[in-house]
Specification:
3 helices; 113 residues; 4-stranded antiparallel β-sheet; binds adenosine-5'-triphosphate; alpha+beta; binds magnesium ion; Alpha-Beta Plaits
């Protein structure tokens, strides 16, 4: 099992949601976040001296999947979120030890799927 965390541009959320749905990924957690990447939150056109990071609004997606859904999930996020410009976002893939459905106590792949 993997936990996929993606930071995306907020305006790309509808496209990412649609692409995930098309790849049969229906479970997700979405939160508003602040973040910055290698441009420290400034655009390429910024010409001043940067003394601190500038946090930009991002959307954070968390999706726990069985191993056979890792690729379809990543592909959907890229399809929905990519514009080719800086700030398109990033995907982190983490090993996930356990998942438990509270209602039934099901564990692991049964609980995720
Ligand atoms: N190394 C990191 N650790 C934690 N969060 C990160 C990291 N890199 C990026 N992020 C998060 O992802 C968001 C989007 O990052 P962004 O797409 O700007 O990455 P980048 O590495 O600067 O790539 P690009 O040059 O394409 O902009 C950031 O605002 C931040 O929330
Ligand atoms: Mg960046």
């Amino acid at each position: 099992m993997k936990l996929i965390i993606a930071m995306i541009q907020p305006h790309k959320l509808p496209d990412v949601k649609k692409a995930l749905f098309d790849n049969e990924v229906h479970k997700m957690t979405v939160t508003n976040a602040l973040g910055c990447g290698q441009q420290k939150g400034f655009t390429e056109t910024y010409r001043g001296v940067i003394h601190e990071v500038n946090l930009l609004k991002k959307v954070r997606l968390e999706i726990a999947v069985n191993d056979n859904f890792v690729k379809p999930t990543i592909e959907a996020i890229i399809k929905g979120a990519r514009t080719g410009k800086i700030g398109d976002g990033k995907i982190f893939v983490l090993d996930l030890d356990q998942c438990i459905r509270i209602r039934t106590s099901e564990q692991g792949s049964e609980a995720i799927g």
